[in-house]
Amino acid sequence: MRTTMMDVPLSLNHLLERAGRLFGGNTIVSRLPDKSLRRHSYAQFHRRARALGSALQALGLRRGDRVATLCWNHHAHLECYFGIPAAGGVMHTLNLRLAPEEIGWIAGHAQDRFLVVDDILLPLYRRFAHLHRFERVLVVPFGGGPVPADCDDYEALLAAADPDGFAYAPHAEDDPVAMCYTSGTTGRPKGVVYSHRSTVLHTLVASLADFWGLRGADVVLPVTPMFHANSWGMPYGAVMLGAKLVFPGPHLHPEDLLDLMQQEPPTLALGVPTIWLGLIQAYEASLEPGSPHAGRWRLPQGMRSLVGGAAVPESLIRAFDRHGVWILQGWGMTETSPVCTISYPRAELRDAGMDERYRRAAMAGVPVPLVDLRVRGDDGDQPWDGASVGEIQVRGPFITGSYHAVPAEPEKFTPDGWLRTGDVASVDGLGFVRITDRTKDLIKSGGEWISSVDLENAVMAHPAVAEAAVIAIPDAKWGERPLACVVFKPGRAATPAELDAQLLQQGFARWQLPDRYEVIEAVPRTSTGKFWKLRLRERFPA
Ligand code: ADP
């Protein structure tokens, strides 16, 4: 017997056409480099994305050609998300926070043919241009000076293109639409290539009510860079449902984000924990008597904030809830599109008290549909009992099974076809994943594991602490011991004894307490804004 269903490929083009037809009057707001706001309607977005597709075809783009982007979060980057695949190309988002040599290496490895770049990022482009030659460089002009003679003006190309006569490039659902390199904490960065199919499935699944809970009525503020795992896929979801988008452009400082939230109050915002740590500190400081920012900001009441990319401290969740904002934690990786789990109040927890809800919200969450997840220990699959710990391995239609143009990676994939995430976790009976560490960050003291994540979260719960990162230092007797690097809030401090007391009160055993506390000015950040423990290990080798 054969199915009677039509053989219609899953396609991003459908989402773009749908947005143009159904949501033409909805708005996309972008903050420009000069901090002014530019508004486009979805109707304009639809025309401009098609015009970009048309312009790229006129420049000779062929099916599967890579078009790199070096852009902040704004409307033109969104046009690339849809216009490049519409023309049959593959959007390759370059991470502008990497070293120029690394960006050049990545562009060369991906064999990027064209580049779309913000005018204000041209100086960065010039620093790696010698490492890889793009055939054409399309400059998005934001008033940062004239478009150089050896480049094309993005706006002029769009103005000259014909969106009405544009025809989508024929494609199969497995054709690539986008690629993204992992940050390469071990060895060279590796490319992950997403398809129409994987992207559409990920968008549908992540948007569900229990997970992102995305609706057309939402106002979405993506702080997560569009070069970081496609801003977690949120731009695709917003376009699918016609949600209003508010892009912050290059202005990601807490005060800038708070200002933007007053101008265009979001109902859903997304970013890594360090963004929200900075934001809540600036916000709470503004509420102190005598603050120069008194009365300037109010957090949007009822806003949901999707936070992931690193563990979210319970203290952060509680702090935002005090101000009417609920944090939804998600876990995933560039390799997984990225959403694998999200913490949401399952039906079984509806009557749970607030402490239990906070505790659950501080977990990575429950696997989304289509993601198979297992916990592997040395002796095979671990039970989902909330206590047994092992490496998380995942499998599914939006999880990468290999890397672009590299030899097989046996240490990243199991022989039976699962992705090895390198994250260590337990899963409980309700399916809540609790990440204890990355394999390489675990602290092994006297044969027992200590979770650096648990210690950090407990230290950050101290009212004087702004941020904390815990690393392992070698120890002659115990093998490794924890060292806590602590950043205090301005004008605040705590003694090691006070911090120890805080940890003991939270249930840590004495042997698990850090051997030392080092006070630092700031926790170093990776290119995606996460705590960069490698740098701390270099700074505190012993
Ligand atoms: P990288 O951090 O290497 O640039 P990704 O952005 O793909 O790459 O990050 C994936 C990693 O981030 C995961 O393997 C995990 O270690 C960490 N991570 C993501 N979300 C969470 C979370 N909610 N809790 C703890 N760790 C997380």
Short structural summary:
This protein is an alpha/beta fold. Helices cover 28% and strands 25% of the residues.
Topology, number of strands: 26
Question: Helix- and strand-based class?
Answer: alpha/beta
Radius of gyration, in Å, reads: 23 Å
Q: Supply the number of helical segments.
A: 15
Shape label: globular
Distance between the termini: 67 Å
The low-pLDDT segments are none
Please, what is the average pLDDT?
Answer: 95
Describe the protein:
Helix 1 crosses helix 2, helix 2 (42-58) crosses helix 6 (154-160) and helix 7 packs across helix 8 (234-241). With 542 residues, the chain is α/β, with parallel strands linked by helices. The strands form five sheets. Strands 2-1-11-10-12-13-14-15-16 form a nine-stranded mixed sheet, sandwiched between helices. It has a seven-stranded mixed sheet with strand order 7-6-5-3-4-8-9. Strand 13 (304-308), helix 11 and strand 14 form a beta-alpha-beta unit. 50% of the residues are buried. The chain has 15 helices and 26 strands. Helix content is 28%, strand content 25%. The chain is globular, with a radius of gyration of 23 Å. Residues 182-183, 185, 229, 308-311, 329, 331, 333-334, 338, 364, 421-423, 435, 438, 528, 530 line the site of adenosine-5'-diphosphate.
